[in-house]
Amino acid sequence: MLALKVNKKQAEKARHYLEVHAQLSTKHKIYGDNSFIYLPIGPSADDKTARAAAKKLGASLVEKGFEKLRERSAYRQILAKELGEKYAEVTKSYDLIGNIALIDAEGSAAKKIASAIMQTNRNIQTVISKGGAVKGRYRTRSYRHVAGKRNFVATYKENGAVLKFDIRKTFFSSRLAYDRLRIAKLVKDNENVLVMFAGMGPFAIEIGIMHKGANVVGIELNRSAYGYMRQNIILNRLKNVTAEVGDVKKAVAKYRGFADRIVMPLPKDAYDFLGSALTAAKRRCIIHYYGFGGKDSAYSEHEQKVRRFFESKGVKVKVIGRREVRKYSPAEIEVVIDFQISKPR
Ligand SMILES: C[S@@+](CC[C@H](N)C(=O)[O-])C[C@H]1O[C@@H](n2cnc3c(N)ncnc32)[C@H](O)[C@@H]1O
């Protein structure tokens, strides 16, 4: 069938355009690979309107097979019937974390959404709802049990890794999956990699699985997340990944001059840990630095600050990559910037 092939960065805008113009197929599952998203065109758009949409969105029009969206469309049908006029007001999309469905709704709407999910997806044993924003040093949020088995411990598969964690006690975002894969692919087989702010281990474990010759260390402050990281290292049978518990600022003392590559996934405060990154870095090191910021200013602000910090220490800095990781709030995005640093001899 016909599909729009769009760059990942343009995908949300293109999807929105097709939905608003009733051109997106409601019966097929959107497909994505490492670089592109494929949006299936529905029967209400002919070749001419599809070509016009592609031109407007700067996308290409391709032929592609798609998986049918039986479950999700059945879910939406049941929900539309149960919610009546309220249907338009609720957030209908949900995330699957192993056999837990995660929704964003309250009260009777949450119950109806949960019932529609469980009727149409037999693998789901639990439905929970977000109870607020991510907050605090551990970057966790609260969740409410809505339906099914009262369980908050998910076993989730991502990029070939099995990750077990209590969603109330550790940070988790499936929207970082692409970047975790991107970074794992950049690692060379014999590198020493330090993952600061490692959580329950997704970056460290995915790198460790892909590169058995790499030596990977994850440092995490939250004891509960650290406990899950240790379990996940065992679950994935990894001998090349080490979990450390504690504050990065103290824990790096053991890893002075260790790292060919450092991952810094703490977008709120990564800047405060650049001194620790410098301690842990080899003479030449790549740093993947995460930060929040405005759509137009995020890259330049972070790049300037990081450059200034390293140059004041006589360290050379080069930006070797940058990308938008996700939308964080209506005004903010999360970005990752890849820096290469060289310390003076
Ligand atoms: C945004 S989460 C990222 C977790 C993980 N890398 C992931 O992708 O799921 C940041 C993590 O940093 C941890 N953290 C915050 N401050 C820290 C510090 N000073 N030292 C070590 N870990 C810290 C938090 O507990 C949290 O688990």
Task: Considering the chains and any ligands shown, give keywords for the structure.
single chain; 345 residues; alpha/beta; Alpha-Beta Plaits; four-stranded antiparallel sheet; 31% helix; binds S-adenosylmethionine
In brief, what are we looking at here?
The chain contains ten helices and 17 strands. It is an alpha/beta fold.
Describe the protein's architecture and organization.
This protein has 345 residues and is of the alpha/beta class. It has 3 domains: 2-63, 2-Layer Sandwich (Alpha-Beta Plaits); 70-151, 2-Layer Sandwich (GMP Synthetase, Chain A, domain 3); 173-342, Vaccinia Virus protein VP39 (Rossmann fold, 3-Layer(aba) Sandwich). It is 31% helix and 30% strand. The chain has 10 helices and 17 strands. A 7-stranded mixed β-sheet has the order 13-12-11-14-15-17-16, sandwiched between helices. Strands 2-3-1-4 form a 4-stranded antiparallel β-sheet, with helices on one face. Helix 3 packs antiparallel against helix 4 (107-120) and helix 5 packs across helix 6 (202-210). The protein is globular. The N and C termini lie far apart (58 Å). The mean pLDDT is 92.
